[in-house]
Each structure stands twice: as C-alpha cells, then as structure tokens.
User: What shape does this take?
Amino acid sequence: MKTSLQSRKSPWPHRLAVALALVTFPLIWVGGLVTTYDAGMAVPDWPGTYGYNLLLYPWQTWIGGPWDLFIEHGHRLLGTTAGLLAIALLATVLIADRRPWLIAAVAGALVLVIVQGVLGGARVLFDERLVAMVHGCIGPLFFAYMAALVVSTSRWWQAAPQIHSADGQRLTRAAWIGVGLAYFQLLLGAIVRHVPLAASPQVFRAALVLHLVVAAVLAVQVSWTAWQACSTREVRGLRWQGWALCLLVAVQVLLGVGTYVAKYSWPAWLGDYQFAAQYVIQEKSLAQSLMTTGHVANGSLTLFVSVVLAMRAARVFFGAGCVDRALLSWLAGETPAPLGRAA
Assistant: This one.
C-alpha cells in the first residue's frame, strides 16, 4: 500500500495531462478555422501532405503558402502533437500510477486521439460532410475527457477532504447535468454548422431553434449550479468555478449573437433600423472567422470547466474511492452503483 501511494506522488502524469489539454484547446480553435474557411480539402491526400511525410513537409511552403493550406496542415501537426503526448501520458501512467481505472482512462484518451485522426483522414479521402460533423463533435468530447484526467491525476485529488453534505451532493448532481447539457448544446451547434447544402430551410431553422432553446435551459442550469456552489461553504474553490461557468455562458451568448449576425445578418424584424439595413455580410472575413471560431472554442471551454467543477465536487462530497470505483465499473462496461454516501 505504501509503495502504491508513493507511486501516485509522481507529478508527471498530471503534467502531461495538462500539456495534452493545452494542446487540445488550440487544436479546437484551428479545427474551427478549417471549417469556417472550408479548408478541409486544402490538402487532398492523407496521412501525408502532398506526398510528403507529414512531419517532413517543407516549412517554407507551409508558412508562406495559401491560408487554407496553412491552417489545414497546422491542424494536422497539432493533432500529431496531441497523439504523441497521449502516448507519453499512457507510458508515464503505466510506470508511475497503478490505479487500474486511470490506466484504462488514459488508454481511452489515446484511442480517442486515434479515432479522431482517422475521422480527419476519412473526411479528406471521402470529402464527406457527415464525417466532418462527427469529427467536430469528438474534439470537444476529448477536451472534456482531458478535463477529467487533469483533475484525477492532480495531487489535489489525493489530498482533498471528504465531506458529507447534502448540499454538496445536490451540487454534484447539478454539475453533471450541466455537463450533459453543455455537450448536447455543442452537438446541436455542430449540426447547425454542418447542415447539408441540399437540406431545406426548415431543417436549418429547426436545428437553430432547438439550439437556442437548449442554450436557454443551459443558462438556467449553470446559474442554478453556480448558486449551489456559492451556497456550499465547505469548499471555497468550487465557488469561483461556478462563477467562471456563468461568465463563460454569458460570453457564449454574446458570441452566438455575433456569429448569427456575422454569418446571416441581422434578423428581419430589425430591418427597419438603419444600422441593420446598411449591414453587409463579408463572407470569410477576419471578423466573421474570429466570431464564429470563438463561439465554437468558448463552447468547448465551457464544457471543460463544467467537467472540472463536476469532478471536483464528486471528489469532495462522494470521496475518491467511491468515484474511482464508479469510473472503473463504467470503463469495464458494468453498471456502476449510484453515487450515494461516500465510502
């Protein structure tokens, strides 16, 4: 037991998890730019780049080439970096941390990176819009997955107090509901961004309305979760995470409005106003690309912080042993027992 506990004190699993999360966020940004600029086919072959090995493609051609080539090849390089970090993370956990569920979870992260890379390649080889949408949905899912790994590999996870609190358990459940809503909202956003060109206007309108409805529900849920976090006086660190979520959702709403205006102009009912009537959409302009991609990236960041809050609340109010067993059962394909009194 002593040897096992000592092995968990290595800082490297946590450092590599943080590094992988830090690489994933700009990867989502650049992936959003690829979609915004329709640059997915800027490099027509895969896994190489114009016949070159991905890592040996001349940097002068990449840096000085067309913008769509720059972001598409850069997206591939960031994805390769994420894959190498995932391999290093798995090797480090196998050496320095013997928790079975953590080994399985890190192996799952590597599998997700591989699946994401294959989907990216399939999107290029088959030029299929549906594959691009699935590819865009797995990116935020992986980012959220890394949020859980960042928390569970930290020293805080081992040293945090275990508190029996009914309010804290309500906060934990509310936080996990928020995680589910945040990801569902991202899925709806991906559908809005990838509606087939041949689809009827009613399909786009239905997807957009549902996106707005879930956004309103998510805003209410996040506000409720933040209030619960502030009411839970035992752990101060959870409060600022709740407020950070509120801030991120507020920014997301503003970015969503800006994205709609930048891509589709002002709503028709504002057409009588001069500022709306004179507005002209500049397709693929800098303002449009930053607004749209920022909306995508901030949504992923909202999901990330939601998972951090939920994991930390579960650790404090249900205990590490209870959470570890639930995660191990889930990874083994079993139905875990409901989180109740901490073990």
Q: What stands out?
A: The chain is about 75% helix and 0% strand. The two ends are 18 Å apart (CA to CA). The chain has two domains: 1-159, 164-343.
